[in-house]
């Protein structure tokens, strides 16, 4: 590759890699500012910052959305709300390292679910990669010895399944296909925030109202909240929209796939997570298995429709 082309590729890749880094760090950031009693309130506050910016940026295309696309995006917003709730409650009850690595199983679950829907077989290499990843999660959740997975681990596993449902719904629902990414994202996030707000009012003791959450945050807490809003959501969304026009979706997806690596690095370096020998072995197996599975799925015709679409900013504009 000529030096000029190499330099242009690097200038495109670097912001995308930064998205993977901030996504990886977001698990620790969310864990630092959220408790079981403030989950709903924190989610409302976080996206109250994001939604006005998205709505203003995409106001023209938002007004042009027809009823069919609005209903489709609203349905996806309900699924998105489930993802956010599972991830945020999950990260409160497990380590940031475990959260970041377990959620990466979405890269394994999605091709498997797609193959079942299309009634086609996946390559044996992919099934081996999936088995490696699952074994890695089993070891990861054990830490220094064998025990039951924590509630947080199971919630993160549920979030990975919910993410898979969201990706498949986006790829198969005719009502949202060919829709503008910015306006569809705004509607989905708006629907999710409405769910959080209603739940916080109906069950205030379950996850806190926005006012309770706001009162629980000190200066460091507000800094963390703004970091999640501005860096992990707005920055991530607009970088993906920018990068996918300048490079291939597969390249964007590959760079974003390094997220679990950064989750582990940040959590071990800054939070002092100590997964133990079993946990460390599990983390390595998860990373190897998901990377192997991603590469295998990219070459399998069964998954071309999903893998070739960049990780959509809605479900991965970081719920946590």
Summary, kept brief:
Helices cover about 75% and strands about 0% of the residues.
Question: Describe it for me?
Answer:
The protein is an all-alpha fold. The chain has one domain. Helices cover 77% and strands 0% of the residues. It contains 16 helices and no strands. The protein has helices at 3-33, 39-57, 59-64, 67-92, 96-102, 106-118, 124-140, 151-172, 181-202, 204-207, 210-216, 219-243, 249-256, 259-270, 276-298, 304-307. α1 packs antiparallel against α12 and α2 (39-57) crosses α12. The radius of gyration is 19 Å and the shape is globular. Mean pLDDT is 82; it is low at 301-315.
N-to-C SSE series?
HHHHHHHHHHHHHHHH
Low-confidence regions: 301-315
Mean pLDDT: 82
Shape: globular
Oligomer kind: single chain
**Residues in β-strands, percent:** under 5%
Rg is 19 Å
Structural class: mainly alpha
Largest sheet: none
Please, how many domains?
A: 1
Distance between the termini: 38 Å
> What portion of residues is helical?
over 70%
Q: How many helices?
A: 16
Count of β-strands: 0
Keywords:
about 0% strand, about 325 residues, mainly alpha, single chain, 16 helices
Give the topology:
Blueprint lengths: L2 H31 L5 H19 L1 H6 L2 H26 L3 H7 L3 H13 L5 H17 L10 H22 L8 H22 L1 H4 L2 H7 L2 H25 L5 H8 L2 H12 L5 H23 L5 H4 L13
């Amino acid at each position: 590759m000529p030096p000029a082309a190499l330099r242009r590729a690097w200038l495109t890749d670097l912001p995308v890699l930064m998205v993977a880094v901030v996504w990886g760090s977001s698990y620790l950031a969310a864990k630092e500012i959220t408790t079981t009693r403030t989950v709903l309130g924190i989610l409302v506050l976080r996206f109250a910052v994001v939604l006005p910016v998205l709505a203003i940026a995409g106001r023209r295309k938002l007004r042009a959305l027809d009823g069919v696309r609005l209903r489709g995006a609203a349905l996806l917003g309900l699924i998105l709300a489930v993802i956010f709730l599972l991830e945020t409650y999950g990260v409160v009850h497990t380590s940031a390292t475990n959260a970041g690595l377990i959620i990466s199983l979405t890269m394994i679950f999605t091709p498997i679910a797609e193959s079942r829907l299309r009634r086609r077989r996946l390559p044996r290499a992919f099934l081996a990669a999936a088995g490696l990843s699952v074994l890695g999660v089993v070891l990861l959740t054990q830490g220094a010895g064998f025990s039951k997975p924590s509630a947080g681990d199971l919630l993160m596993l549920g979030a990975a399944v919910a993410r898979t449902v969201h990706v498949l719904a986006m790829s198969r629902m005719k009502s949202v296909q060919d829709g503008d990414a910015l306006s569809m994202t705004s509607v989905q996030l708006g629907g999710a925030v409405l769910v959080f707000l209603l739940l916080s009012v109906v069950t205030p003791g379950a996850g806190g109202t926005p006012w309770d959450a706001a009162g629980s945050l000190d200066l460091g807490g507000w800094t963390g909240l703004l970091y999640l809003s501005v860096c992990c959501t707005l920055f991530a969304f607009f970088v993906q929209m920018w990068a996918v026009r300048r490079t291939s979706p597969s390249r964007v997806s590959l760079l974003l796939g390094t997220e679990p690596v950064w989750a582990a690095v940040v959590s071990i370096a800054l939070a002092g997570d100590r997964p133990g020998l079993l946990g460390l072995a599990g983390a390595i197996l998860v990373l190897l298995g998901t990377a192997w599975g991603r590469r295998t799925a990219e070459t399998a015709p069964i998954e071309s429709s999903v893998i070739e679409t960049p990780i959509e900013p809605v479900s991965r504009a970081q719920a946590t």
